[in-house]
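User: Before I run my own analysis I want an independent prediction to cross-check against. Here's the chain; please return only the structure tokens and, at the end, one sentence I can use as a sanity check.
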Amino acid sequence: MGSLPVLASPECAPERRAKVSTSDLAPLFSAQRRHLDHFFDRLDMSQAAAFAQALLDAPGAVFFTGVGKSGIVARKIAQTLASLGFARAGFLAPVDALHGDIGAIFPGDVLVLLSKSGVSDELLALAPCARAKGAYLISLTSAASGSDCPLAAACDLNVHLPLQGEICPFGLAPVTSTAIQMVFGDTVIAAIMEARRLSRDQYASNHPAGKIGKTLIFKVKDVMKKQNELPLCKEGDMIMDQLTVLTSKGCGCLLVVDEEHHLIGTFTDGDLRRTLKASGPAIFNLTVGEMCNRNPRTITAEAMAVEAMEKMESPPSPVQFLPVVDDNNIVCGIITLHGLVSAGL
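Assistant: Structure tokens:
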């Protein structure tokens, strides 16, 4: 291991408040951009395409592995691929693999090994063992194939990820190489999604929780108010007689319907304020039907909940609710912005 310097403990170090200014950050971001441009300009697209095709054609599982920060990236790429549902995909810790976990690999499986240097001892030890199990080996390295990259020589396919340098002050910490690995892996997975023609429903089936899942799965009927929760009234009802319904249902509006519950229009608390300001005491003689909006935005129960939110926020001005109607314009519910937010959308 050699001799490591003995550092003073933090308690003995003089107190000094470190600062980072915009003048410090700007050149680093510029350097990172140059390094990423170097990667994009020099990436061999034929190697990238061969890698993507190997993942698409994998007859078995696809495992990713790596050491240190490359291992973290490998785990993330594996989880993203697994979330698509096309193939069994997972992360294989290299040390654990050498102590039994390699039993998860079967003939026809693909093992992707991520390494900046291509000389990681753990991966070089794992590669021949995985090959003996019948796996197809792919290395992703920033060292070009050859004597300087023994991992590439040990694999069936190597993809060179061109690296100009790290923006670390010492040029050592993997703060650019890992960004390149992540960009490459995620971009290839996006290409696989296109090639497999992944549908929203397929994607949603593997994301039942969180905002992604709710956006893809929740429909209006799942979050709308219905039946006794609806603020219904008739067009002949007096405005002042409906104040209790207007305020007690928590929707900020009235849904004006006929005897068969066909939607006629809507009357909001904002309409109430405007009518009171314009008519004064005459408001006691006005019906809801005289002052309601007879051309409100509506939505169906089968529409996606996220579509309802987009419709609420669309021009010319945002609204706080949408009446939910069927194909015959019969009211079956109401969906509110508060309800959407409460549902996590």
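Sanity check: The two ends are 52 Å apart (CA to CA).
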